[in-house]
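[agent] plan:
  1. take the single chain provided in the ticket
  2. run structure prediction with default settings
  3. attach structure tokens to the ticket
  4. add a short note for the reviewer (M.T.)
[agent] executing step 1
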Amino acid sequence: MKNDYQKINHFNLRLLTALLLFGMLPFTNWGQEDNFADKPLFRDPIFDGAADPSVIWNKAEQKWFMFYTNRRANEKRANGVSWVHGTRIGIAESTDGAHWTYKDTANINYKFKDITYWAPDVLEYKGVYHMYLTIVPGIFDDWYHPRFIVHLTSNNLQDWEFESKLTLASDRCIDATVFQLPNGMWRIYYNNENDGKSIYYADSKDLYNWVDSGQQVIKDRGEGPKVFNWKNQTWMVNDAWDGLGVYSTEDYIHWTRQEYNLLKVPGIGKDDNVKGGHPDIVVNDGRAYVFYFTHPGRTEKNKGKDNYATRRSSIQVAELKFENGVISCNRDIPVNIHLKPPKQ
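[agent] step 2 finished; step 3 output follows
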């Protein structure tokens, strides 16, 4: 028995060494309890169309909640792109960020016939949860229809009350990300589809009353912006439809684009062999993680096809790295993640 135990330990040591040498395990994980994220991280059990994740800590339940757009990927009677409409916001939960289970859909008190909910951005401030949510007033077969952003609040992250419809630069604005500036003001960056899908912004003193700038800050085509602080710098990542674009800023208006996109090169993991899209970033205990989604069936082989295989989507996670002023990530490295509750 002792010899068998020694052989197993010797084998494990050689395996660990090989993984480190070939870059499959980061050195920063030494001394930490292994808690590797599932691959894929999450699939919705109802429609199998989880996308556009937004991750937040639930204080009362002592769990992490992930809000997501739930596209109706398995809808058999869908015409055109109607399957990405008529969606509710799904919720998954986790104690550590590595393993997620389906919980429910959000109870949103903003309903009329055939409403579509997209791209939630959720934050907590002074004990109140806020959601900035894209609304499409109907179920449509094509893309060109009005959409707008609304503000909702909640005390429990399950039940949401309507506060206001934001007046922004056009009648086709989507994909909010809300960020607090150093002066205490709040800024919402969003996608103005009527101006080439560029990024605009509005400001607020209190999260309730917003004044739009009418100003374009990023002219590149893309969507799903996410702004965050990390490594003494303010960053924005967005879905550039060619992986994730990365930008940095000193004044929150002028943004410099990084040369290389994240998640542009397909990975080798399960459901991860395509480009990554529409991210959320969680900075936790000094480390940063990108939560993103993939359409695993949208490969060159299936190009132009529209069926369940090309519609379904999966949520994934990768850890970001920072070196010489550049953000990168290797999506093929197993993610050793154990999110800690935010400091109160």
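[agent] step 4 note for reviewer: The chain has one domain: 39-329.
[agent] ticket updated
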